[in-house]
Write a structure and sequence with these properties.
Order of helices and strands: HEHEHEEEHHEHEHHEHEE
Distance between the termini: 18 Å
CATH superfamily: Metal-dependent hydrolases
CATH topology: TIM Barrel
Strand order of the largest sheet: 1-2-3-6-7-8
Number of strands: 10
Number of domains: 1
CATH architecture: Alpha-Beta Barrel
Number of helices: 9
Shape: globular
CATH class: Alpha Beta
Helix content: 25-40%
Bound molecules: zinc ion
Largest sheet: 6 strands, parallel
Length: about 290
């Protein structure tokens, strides 16, 4: 039985808790064959969780040095989690080459702007969410969701990240208040269109366990019914924990494996020698991972 790797993690260069080395030590301790760092890439706005632009060279050098240092023990991968902001975020395929990254993660954390300097954060506090909901969208949640998935599709088509991060993270707001039901036909249609866009792009869809192990969502991102549809469309998936502390690196992986198997997936993608490879889910069954 093999151990699943994690390719989405935040260290103390952004809003993660610990230095990179601590995540590697934990990964080696748990027997992960590889490990990927993906700090929040700098954005040209004030942000509590993104890396400062001035720290980027040091971050990239840091991961590169660890790659060399640990190469006989564990494969280390260098990445960043990019926000998609229209007219700000360009081609991540070009950025990947320029920064010598192994892959990129593209995520929607912002929808439009509260004012010219402040993008509206949709996965933060409910207070912030309420502000944009009323200020930008007249309190209409359907308009918000429509814009959210429109931006996700635009990100996939224009920015072309290697991995589409936490597809339905906006459902975290349902934790505070039941804003919308995933059963509604307009919501299903938005998701279906987005899955088709991902399918056409050939990119990887992330199964992200963070909402679940932080007890803010009932299921992983994306929801089980979405994963069921993703499998019918034969969209490749990668399981990630979005760890912000070393103890979270494999959190929720057993649930993610079980969910994928239940909805019909046979493979998950893992990076080996710098290439994404499908691996039989069966290989990973029964592994006791921390939750
Ligand atoms: Zn994210
Ligand atoms: Zn993240």
């Amino acid at each position: 039985m093999d151990i699943l790797s994690n390719y989405h993690s935040h260290c103390n260069y952004c809003d993660g808790a610990s230095p990179m080395e601590d995540y590697i030590l934990e990964a080696v301790n748990q027997g992960l064959p590889s490990y990927g760092f993906s700090s929040h890439a700098p954005i040209p706005y004030e942000s509590k969780w993104s890396m400062q632009a001035s720290a980027l060279p040091s971050y990239l050098r840091g991961v590169q040095a660890l790659k060399q240092e640990w190469k006989s023990v564990i494969e280390i991968y260098k990445s960043l989690e990019f926000d998609y902001i229209p007219n700000v975020t360009g081609s991540l395929e070009e950025v990947m080459i320029k920064l010598d990254l192994d892959y990129t993660i593209g995520s929607i954390h912002f929808i439009d702007f509260l004012d010219t300097e402040t993008p509206w954060e949709i996965d933060g506090s409910n207070e912030k969410f309420e502000k944009g909901l009323h200020q930008i969208f007249d309190g209409d949640i359907q308009k918000v969701l429509t814009r959210y998935f429109e931006l996700t599709q635009e990100m996939v088509r224009i920015a072309k990240p290697t991995i589409v991060g936490h597809l339905d993270k906006i459902k975290i707001q349902n934790y505070y208040k039941p804003y919308f039901s995933e059963d509604e036909s307009w919501y299903i249609k938005l998701v279906e269109e987005t899955l088709q866009t991902i399918k056409d792009s050939g990119k990887l869809l992330e199964v992200n366990t963070r909402g679940w192990y932080k007890s803010k969502t009932q299921e992983v991102y994306p929801s089980n019914w979405i994963l069921y549809r993703a499998n019918q469309l034969d969209i490749p998936v990668v399981i990630n924990s979005d760890a912000h502390v070393p103890s979270e690196i494999s959190a929720g992986f057993n649930l993610a494996l079980k969910t994928l198997e239940e909805v019909g997936f046979k493979h998950v993608f893992q990076m080996e020698n710098g290439l994404w490879q499908p691996q039989a889910i069966q290989r990973f069954q029964g592994v006791k991972l921390k939750v």
